[in-house]
Write a structure and sequence with these properties.
This protein is an alpha+beta fold. The chain is 18% helix and 43% strand. It is built from six helices and 25 strands. The strands form three sheets. A 13-stranded antiparallel β-sheet has the order 5-1-7-8-9-6-2-3-4-17-16-15-10. It has an eight-stranded antiparallel β-sheet with strand order 14-11-12-13-25-24-23-18. The protein is elongated and about 80 Å long. The termini are far apart.
Length: 367
């Protein structure tokens, strides 16, 4: 196999392949990226057996063929080379890589491509279209709230389903919940409600364009995504996602509203004195004032007051500061609303004006 390519056009694709690959052993086929040169096109494949990646880029093929090489080392070589044309040549089990304009030559050992895991074909897969911008927003609003507990693996992904003509994503770790519902004007067919792993969602979020559409399909316990010249696929998580609708309050008696910047800046300062194992802060709420407090600890304490719109009785809420800070990063309005009923019941956080998403936080014990 022999071909030449533009260094800059390949390096981006190999960087994505590197994100997919989790096995870093140079003797494992799962640490390798598959390269197939044919018809002046280079097909690149990467897999960790659960999540897969395929892309195609134009190259000048001199001799067709296929092989696999150690992805991390290939990426290191490409990063070290200057921009410009590079020659790739395989002879027996060795691959040579050298730039045309410099007297530099690298040699890597390869592993035969027949040992590479088979990647499911997208042929005859029933894709549907969704706005790339909308889908990326759905991921942004939910991906941070998944569980990181392997014993609750069914909560380590984002639940994806269809509700009437809308698409819904939900995530929860048992102490908080994030929900977003988007109308899809591109006619979504029925599909099996599924739990999508975070890894493929991160790949889509990082690499999908902000404009145009993404093609999505869910079939045979797998999710497929296509956009630009990329194809991603992943096994879905098995298990029963919790009945999230029971957690969503039908009505909440009280609410208060603050400036997002005021709250974000205060949280950053108060967090300096928070016990990171417990993450507990207090919201002391009075008409017109929200006092944010880090409880007394071995290292000290802090408090800060910010203005708020509130007309109810004084109340104190104990909350995990991360469960507030993470949603704030993905809310893009200037004002934020908290809704609640009492100190030990679910609290809802959403934008003002209200959008198609919200975040629910379960309070902590006051003592």
């Amino acid at each position: 196999m022999k071909f030449s390519f533009d260094r800059d056009s390949l390096i981006k694709e190999i960087a994505i392949a590197q994100e997919i690959i989790t096995n870093k052993s140079p003797i494992s086929i799962l640490s390798n990226v598959l390269l197939e040169a044919q018809n002046n096109t280079l097909t690149i494949k990467a897999s960790d057996t659960s999540v897969n990646f395929i892309t195609h880029i134009p190259v000048e093929v001199i001799e067709e063929g296929t092989t696999t090489i150690y992805c991390d080392k290939l990426m290191g070589i490409l990063n070290s080379l200057p921009s410009g044309e590079v020659e790739f040549n395989q002879e027996d089990i060795k691959v040579s890589i050298k730039p045309v304009s410099k007297k530099i030559k690298f040699q890597l050992k390869s592993i035969a491509s027949d040992k590479f895991p088979e990647i499911a074909s997208t042929e005859n897969v029933p894709f549907f279209e969704i706005s790339s911008k909308d889908f990326k927003e759905m991921i942004c609003q939910t991906i941070f709230a998944v569980a990181d507990d392997a014993n609750r693996f069914f909560m380590t992904g984002v639940f994806f389903t269809k509700k009437d003509n809308n698409l819904v994503m939900v995530s929860t770790d048992g102490r908080r919940l994030s929900y977003i519902e988007k109308e899809n004007t591109l006619n979504t067919p029925e599909f099996t409600p599924s739990i999508v792993p975070v890894k493929i969602l991160n790949c889509i979020l990082k690499n999908a364009p902000s404009e145009g559409n993404i093609s999505i399909a869910i079939v045979d316990k797998m999710i497929f995504a296509k956009f630009s010249n990329y194809e991603f696929s992943s096994l879905l998580l098995d298990g029963q996602f919790p009945n999230y609708q029971r957690v969503i309050p039908e009505k909440q008696a009280y609410s208060f509203q603050v400036q997002k910047n005021d709250l974000e800046n205060a949280l950053k300062r108060i967090a300096l004195m928070v016990d990171k194992k417990i993450c507990r802060i207090l919201f002391n709420l009075k008409p017109g004032v929200l006092k944010i407090i880090s409880p007394e600890s071995d290292i000290g304490n802090a408090d800060e007051e910010i203005p708020c719109e509130y007309n109810g009785d004084e109340i104190t809420l104990a909350l995990n500061y991360r469960y507030i800070g993470e949603p704030l990063k993905v809310i893009d309005t200037e004002r934020i609303v908290f809704e609640f009923t009492e100190s030990m019941k679910a609290i809802t956080l959403h934008s003002e004006p209200k959008a198609d998403y919200f975040h629910i936080i379960m309070p902590m014990n006051l003592e």
